[in-house]
Amino acid sequence: MPEITVSMAAGRTDEQKAGMMRDITQALVKNLGVDADAVVIQINEAPLAHKMKGGKTFVERAAAAAAAKK
């Protein structure tokens, strides 16, 4: 039984997450030849203030991007 864990910043809708999990499931069915019922997918979400890239939290990055658009 393949198990996939996706770690990502919070902020996507339930519909977006469900669509992503369906697509991942289908990729495993196609490429590994397993039944969809055998695939387990878990999403671990981090609050934007708890995730950092390039030395800035995702909150700081979003604020900088918004300021740059002005």
What's the SSE pattern? Answer: EHEEEH
Can you give the mean pLDDT?
96
Walk across the major sheet and give the strand order.
1-2
What is the structural class?
Answer: alpha+beta
What is the global morphology? elongated
User: Helix tally?
Assistant: 2
CATH topology: Macrophage Migration Inhibitory Factor
Poorly predicted residue ranges: none
Number of domains: 1
Tell me the span between the first and last alpha carbons: 49 Å
- Tell how many strands the DSSP assignment holds: 4
Largest sheet: 2 strands, parallel
Radius of gyration: 16 Å
Family: Belongs to the 4-oxalocrotonate tautomerase family.
GO molecular function: isomerase activity
Pfam families: Tautomerase
Protein name: Tautomerase
Question: What does this entry look like structurally?
Answer:
There is one protein chain. With 70 residues, this protein is an alpha+beta fold. It has one domain: Macrophage Migration Inhibitory Factor, CATH 3.30.429.10. It is 44% helix and 26% strand. It is built from 2 helices and 4 strands. The strands form 2 sheets. A two-stranded parallel ribbon has the order 1-2. Strands 3-4 form a two-stranded antiparallel ribbon. Strand 1, helix 1 and strand 2 form a beta-alpha-beta unit. The longest helix has 19 residues. It is elongated and about 50 Å long. The model has no long low-confidence stretch (mean pLDDT 96). Keywords: Isomerase. This is Tautomerase. Belongs to the 4-oxalocrotonate tautomerase family. GO terms for molecular function: isomerase activity. InterPro entries: 4-OT-like_dom (IPR004370), Tautomerase/MIF_sf (IPR014347).
